[in-house]
């Protein structure tokens, strides 16, 4: 009746990081700097890491259970589920990764030493495989923006570092602007958990397979959406990207 007679539709509330007036100004300014100093055709490598828990999750909003009687289904989840910490990078040409932060097969936290080791021993050899000039983006995590890691990145990407204290800054509280956050992790987790991995090795194998399976056409679309989000952020004076998030026409 709500749909057919009253013309109503169900909508979901979107959760987003709270932004202050200072954040609005910073986001708008840095989006403008990216637009002004990085050519649209430039190769930009967006990077980040994320945890993948073995237990996975069930989104109760997306998985209703239809039955005559209440099935009283209870989804139990471990308080401390085993997980892997994955680093990936996404660019218009495709994906780099995954890189698992682990020692002797055991997942470890991303410290400064481990992040620098990844940059030197995993990212640098990948960079040597391409001839184009590449811009590199990272968020402002402590290990990312330390003097030591920034020194390595400035040597690898001279004049082309997008980061806190980089050649071009990156605004805090902005997961709506980077393809890793607004596209990659959600897409990967939906694919990985669809096969219900039962062990850490199966989880890692599923992540590897799904990262490898992402086609360049999809990453190009993500890059196009990134540029749309930059423009929307500038138009909105740094506020949340309502027209992009809610697909306003």
Specify the structural class.
alpha/beta
From the 3D structure, determine the CATH topology.
Answer: Nucleotidyltransferase, domain 5
Average pLDDT across residues? 88
- The share of residues in extended strands comes to 5-15%
Give the strand order, joined by hyphens, for the main sheet: 3-2-1-6-7
Quantity of strands, as a count: 7
The end-to-end span amounts to: 27 Å
From the spread of the alpha carbons, the general shape counts as globular
Q: Outline the low-pLDDT stretches.
A: none
What does this structure look like?
The chain has 249 residues and is an alpha/beta fold. It has one domain (21-51, 80-238): Nucleotidyltransferase, domain 5 (2-Layer Sandwich), CATH 3.30.420.10. It is built from seven helices and seven strands. It has helices at 21-37, 112-127, 147-156, 179-194, 200-213, 216-235, 242-245, and strands spanning 43-53, 83-91, 94-100, 102-103, 106-107, 134-137, 161-162. Strands 3-2-1-6-7 form a five-stranded mixed sheet, sandwiched between helices. Strands 4-5 form a two-stranded antiparallel sheet. Strand 4 and strand 5 (106-107) form a beta hairpin. The longest helix has 20 residues, at 216-235. The radius of gyration is 20 Å and the shape is globular. It starts with 20 loop residues before the first helix and ends with a helix. 26% of the residues are buried. The mean pLDDT is 88.
